[in-house]
Amino acid sequence: MARLPEFREEQEYRILRESAASYAANELAPQAEELDLEPAAWRVKKAISKAGELGMLSALVPEEKGGGGLDDYAFCVALEEIAVEEAGIAVALLAHNAALLPSALGEFEGLITGVGAESYPACLAFPGEISLRDGKVSGKVPFAFNAVDCPFITLIPTDEAGTRAATVSADATGVSAEPEAYPLGLRAACPGSLRLEGAEPSNLISGGNMLEAVERALYLGLAAVSVGIIRNSLRKAYAYARERYQAGKMIIEHQQMRLFLAEMLAGVEEGRSLVREASSSPELAPSMIAWLRNTARACQAATDGVQIHGGYGYMRDYGMERLMRDAKYCQMYPSTSQEALLRLLDMSETG
Amino acid sequence: MVATTLSERGRKLLRDFPALGALHQHDRRGIEGLIDLVERAAEYNRTVALPRALELDERMEREPDYFDWEMMREACKYRFFSLAIPEVIGGLASKYMVTGMALVVEELCSACGGIGLAIAAHSLGVAPVIASGAMAHWDTVLHEIVEEEKKGNPVLMAYAITEPSAGTDVEEPEFLEVAKIGLEAKKVKGGYRVNGRKCFISGGSEAKYITMTAATDRSRPLETWTTFLVERDMEGFSTPRVELKMGQRACHAAELLFEDVFIPDSHVLGYEGDGIENGILIIMAASRGPVGAIATGIARGAFEHFLAWTRESANGKRPIDEDRIRMALADMYAALEENRGLYLGHSLGGDALFRNAFTHPIFLSAFMIPRRVRASKPYASLLNSYYGKGLVNILFRYFIKDDDATDMLAKASLAKFACADNAMALVARALELMGATPSPERRWVEKAYRDVKLTQIYEGTNQLNRLALFNAEIAGTLKIEIPGPFKKGVR
Predict the structure, then answer these.
(1) Which residue in A16, A73, A330, B98 has a CA-CA distance of 20 to 30 Å to B272?
(2) Closest CB from A254, A315, A329 relative to B244
(3) Architecture of the domain spanning B7-155
């Protein structure tokens, strides 16, 4: 691939980057197409099982609580590297870790079960209208990742100012999950909808602003995943441009194609900087900004990548069109970009 | 004042297609014919395309080889396979052939880009038979299509240009000169031996007749580019695979394999060596506008589903009540109007150019000879002879002038890339604004997002189309030469 200017980061992140990249290349790359075409539960389970060695199954849970103990930036580094091969798995891991976040941050009020599940990524039921009344949760979540076959679901009741979270076992009575009928992209992250009717939580967790913490993790993580998608687009399109002859010269020698590729290159650098900045801030706004910019960049990069490939880019064999579909879903969740923009203004006014 | 003289239909037309609304006052019958076509396409959408579009799209991801013949048989009732076939042969093409094609295609693609493409690809396959003036095949091949269509049997055609190592290259003279050509049609006694592959051929695996452009000498593609008529049952011809596409799946993109296929001399459309002008530039000049219409149709479908979503209420609020959504809707509406202006401008211009070939008395007089004679072998060999082809070409040269064809290619290329880019931007924005909404409308817009991308790629990538506009109009360095017996490449 095009050699990127070296991104300055500390040794520890560099080591993590390498091990995440090798996990992605060995475990995910060979089955990236199957994970998109037929994301069966066993396949997803198998794909993420080795992610535990990176600490990615409980990345944001502190080591003293038995977790991976990665800081936010390290988490983003790993997500980016994983997304270079399979954005769907990266998002599945993101949603899983976001689902574990309340238990990492807060104090348990009740019995602790089912946290740190190794079997299948957990589901973060967000955003949605959830109420907690008389110790039971009810509500609807129209779109969430890992919605089907997950071991437990983390919810943040919206009627409590987001200071409490609940985990509900996926097979508890009153919980029903419906897979998305025909998801556009990120299929390995099994998007679906949830309905809760008086389900009994297995845990209640309180403390801090759970809602904001979870939201920030999603925006930040998707911003990092988007960088991975831009890198993958650049890698694929660059390789293709160097080997394909078109109109009297190699594609790489065509000026317009060079512009497309250069934009991607700039996008990777810009995207990483935004993620780095945002991960060092506890505020929500920088993560939202990183998400806004990086997802838009990723959509453009993937679309241009398909264009560079011409007809081949549109066919599944080249793995390019998948990036276009994956990138778009990163941009459509957890909110729309305009909703995020409008909130951003409110945040800066109040702050 | 004007409004009082307008019929109900005319008024609706003025609103939906202002350019046609204005023309309606000058040519009521002709324009009413076009509205009829659009209304038929809308009925086909209601009864055939919409009920199956989502399911078919999903099914063809799992079973790429599946083809829905039922939708094609249904299309026969609406005569969509006769759109490009001249009236003298029993088809529907008259003085508004290109415009009619574009309007029908927009309407069909507003329901499903794939089904629209499956129907449009057939007419693209028919076009070289018309444009090359190969009248020897009009009363056989085209007549068969019309007759079988009446019985409900779709006899399909397809047009094959793209080769595995050369896509965009083979659609532009300056690139063809340096293209890496894999397929060759070698001259042998009585015809040509063809070896090689064509790829991504829309409708190629279902077509009974395929018009194909190929080099007779691979080392000199520009000088030897030639248009052929291939029949499915020719020995050595096969369609070994179809692609799994991101969208527009209802229409197969097929690979064509030629293993020592013999094509007789009678199946050369036009002359050997005139394939660039005759087989490509004129066809592209006529067909890129309708590709703009495909993009417009897909975008309009997405717009309609997006609009339906904005009217849905979530938690007592409707998106359409928000200013930013209204602004976006206005932008999208404007983009659609712009697109229609572009492709209609091109199509109407194209019809001004081509209409003589369908309606001129000199031309029609050739069809006063009884069909029995016209379909006979001696008559065909007369038309296929040097003088026969020469006569037809003189006629075509008289009707269609070089400069007009060049201008039309410029307009067509402009309509193609501008419509496709507008459409892509529209659909991407609609999805961005909808977000992960639970509305069932989202799935339609997601499908449109997958479908619309192809319009930036096929019929020459949008980058190539920009160059074609530059060469033909801004710099003025590209000239289409209408082939004729006294021109280059003619033996």
Answers:
(1) B98
(2) A315
(3) Orthogonal Bundle (1.10)
